[in-house]
Amino acid sequence: MEGVFTVLGPNEPDINVEYDKLAKQANGGNAASMYSLATMCLKHRGTLKDSGKTSEETAIIWLTKAAEKGHVKAHTLLGILYEDGLGVSQNYKMAFQLYSKAASQGDSWAECNIGLLYENGRGVMKDYNEAVRWYKKSANGGNSDGQVNLGSYYIGGNSVEVQTGIQWYEKAADNGHIEAMNRLGLIYDTGSLVPKDTKRAFEWFKMAAQAGHTDGMYNVAICYAEGTTLDGKQDVAKAKFWIKNAADRGHQDAQNVVWR
Asked: Which of 95, 135, 180, 228 yields a CA-CA distance of 20 to 30 A from 49?
């Protein structure tokens, strides 16, 4: 499978050389190269000139080969494609089987995805207790999505569980999960679960904004506009800066702000 893509995204470098190099290694039986080829196809999107297959279809081929050789993350990524119906007919049961193979080898990404299938009743009977069990496995394995999902479970409980939920959100945020950062900001900003603390809310919103989260950008802009910052002072210039950044990235509420 040489020749790569007829369609590349804007400003994409020519990836033909890298693809062909990996393809030679993959055709020689290297599972890691097969996986790398699949992720390259999914990242760049297009159509292979020699086969006419889409990037998703080609990714399926390489992931299947890598999975057959026991590549753990290939099972997980292949499961995601089956779950989402990318390059293949959507099949939740197949996704569950693939996730289970990866999870049996300790893949925290797969563990989180199994939890989601149980929570939503996709490919398996809906079972929230089983979902939480898998979220715990994933979270303890360091997966930030698993940590957020587990945190959300605890947030719905009593005051002791709320604190546990916040701790899991914080662990996810420490792992770079930008949605966790914004959620922490909202928790402290609203004061509905813990005592209201606008300074801590501002810090989390700013962290999320700087990491590229559009809700975080919008929220930190409001903080600057209202003066709910660390020094308690308004800063119109910074408010406009962040509201414009959010609006330029398609944030609808930010686009509707008249003073931006």
From this structure: 95
